[in-house]
Amino acid sequence: MRLTSMLESTPMLILGVESSCDETGIALYDSRDGLLAHALHSQVAMHAEYGGVVPELASRDHIRRAAPLLREVLARSGRDLAAVDAIAYTRGPGLAGALLVGSAFAEALALALDKPTVPVHHLEGHLLSPLLSATPPEFPFVALLVSGGHTQLMRVTGVGEYELLGESLDDAAGEAFDKSAKLLGLPYPGGALLSKLAESGKAGVYELPRPMLHSGDLDFSFSGLKTAVLTLVRAQTEPLPETFKADAARAFQEAIVDVLAGKSLKALKATGLKQLVVAGGVGANRQLRARLNDEARRKGFRVFYPELEFCTDNGAMIALAGCLRLQAGDAAKTAGAFSVQPRWPLTDISRGVT
After folding, report:
1. Residue 17 belongs to what H/E stretch?
2. Cα gap 206→230, rounded to integer Å
């Protein structure tokens, strides 16, 4: 189904609320005019002091940020809150307390406005986020979802029509980035810093394994790669030389990119599809994008990414996912009662089921 045809029905104005972890996101999406405005607050600076996300602090900060961000989005969009047709929010997966804050905020607002709500799967938001781009993919496509604790390959036939092709059996790519960064002595959040450091490293200094690259299936495993980095670190003297850090980061990133790209190409071949969507935080990795763009030129497929600002958690992807769910025929629910699902496999959702 073409995205353009899905959005040609009755125009809808959807408010999106994201609070699954350490970003508070609010957005307004119009099914006819697209994304009107979005605002995001990251808690990275607050959690950096503790070396990682502190769930209680995350929840409290979401409480403080939601209403001011909503006012900002309304002011920037020029729309009135009363014009909103439905409120979409992240039901899961994520931190239970953080999810409860966003869900309660959205449901209370909807109840006060007498508007329906649309609970959204966080990973579905990431999966559909490239549709926010000026040149979106059309269904069907293969999706490489590399977000936080998830690394998955999906065959996406339409909204709510997802077939799992392969997934990480242990550490996801994002977790491997963060854990390896910590081993190299990089501060939180380490994954992005490791990627930047890799740009100054020399290729070929260290050789790291490509786990499951030739396993014959589409599953992933990155815990062994993290262990290989630990082995390199233990062979060094303290403090770790800066050149070692850069070269090790380069070797690590090249291994991750080889596996992600290799498995993605195998998924395209297995499905016979010619479109690859890359979504989630690791989708912002410059080396991964360069590798996939090069493969696309050589092998004749197209690759799509969300804009960089939508690779991280954000309200825009939740508003879009809620809108597409409604346009696809799902029913919104009456505001008021709600529940969250901190653990919620993407394959458990289908059209009309929340």
Report:
1. strand 13-18
2. 13
Amino acid at 207: E
Sheet containing strand 302-304, edge to edge, reads: 161-167, 150-158, 141-147, 275-279, 302-304
Cα-to-chain-centroid distance, residue 172:
13
Residues 6+ apart with CB under 8 A from 171: 179, 221, 222, 223, 226
What is the mean pLDDT of the segment spanning 176-190?
Answer: 94
Q: What is the pLDDT of residue 9?
A: 64
Evaluate if residue 166 carries a pLDDT over 80.
yes
pLDDT in the model for residue 89: 98
Instruction: Report whether 350 contacts 161 (CB < 8 A).
Output: yes
Two tokens at 278?
A: 């890359």
- Beta strand extents in 80-186 (DSSP E only): 86-92, 117-121, 141-147, 150-158, 161-167
- Both structure tokens of 296: 């696309």
How many whole angstroms separate alpha carbon 201 and alpha carbon 181? Answer: 14
Sign (positive or negative) of CA dihedral 19, 25, 26, 31: negative
CA–CA dist 304, 125 (Å, integer)? 15
Pairing outcome for strands 302-304 and 150-158: unpaired
Angstrom distances, CA of residue 173 to CA of 26, 115, 126, 202, 280: 27, 39, 15, 22, 11
pLDDT number for residue 247: 98
- Cα dihedral across residues 118, 122, 128, 134: positive or negative: positive
